[in-house]
Amino acid sequence: MTRVLYPGSFDPIHNGHVEIVETAARAFDEVVVAAVGNPGKGSGVFTLAERFDIIAEVFVGVDNVRPMMHSGLVVDLAVDQQVDFIIKGLRAAGDFESELQQAQINKQLSGVETMFLPSTSLSSFIASKYIREIARFGGDISSMVPGPVLARLRAKMADSD
After folding, report:
1. Domain 3-160, what fold?
2. 93-125 per-position pLDDT tens digit
3. Hey, which residues are catalytic here?
4. Inter-residue contact 149 to 58 (CB < 8 Å)
5. How far apart are CA 19 and CA 144, in angstroms?
6. Tally of CB atoms within 10 A around 125
7. Three-state SS for 69?
């Protein structure tokens, strides 16, 4: 059985992330999708627990996708979950440079290899930071996020008014 870990802040999870998870779910026996607390990204829209709940809701019925949440080093989670690979999505060439360096550090620390999955051109422009900004100003993000994310973002933005 091949188990992979797809870590990210997922604040919020968007269609580009969903595409990567769906690709991984077809290729591997189990995909652990972990919402990870990232102090370097500052405070986001959703708490870690909310991001976990959203991931669970988005992938309900996909039997080989398991949501998790984690605060700490991704490599510690990878070792704890006994994953065979960490997977990372790539949108553009610029992503590769930073992700490669991170993959090399993760390999050094844990022995776990990283595999890169490219996104399609249809979702390569989507980034969570843009989703948050567009949503804050009332823009239409419905084509960029799954339904559960759209509903929760609208509720969050209404609460902040």
Report:
1. Rossmann fold (3.40.50)
2. 778 888 999 999 999 999 999 999 998 878 888
3. 17, 41, 91, 128
4. yes
5. 11
6. 12
7. strand
As a whole number of angstroms, the distance between CA 149 and CA 156 comes to 10
With CA atoms as reference, report the closest residue to 15 among 161, 158, 150: 150
Question: What is residue 4's three-state secondary structure?
Answer: strand
What residues have CB less than 8 Å from 47, skipping those under 6 apart?
none
Does the bond joining 12 to the residue before it have cis omega, within 30 degrees of 0?
Answer: yes
Report the alpha-carbon distance of residue 161 to residue 154 in Å, rounded. Answer: 11
Q: How many CB atoms lie within 10 A of CB 134?
A: 14
Q: Count CB neighbours of 75 within 10 A.
A: 19
pLDDT, tens digit (0-9, with 9 covering 90-100), for 123-149: 888 999 999 999 999 999 999 999 999
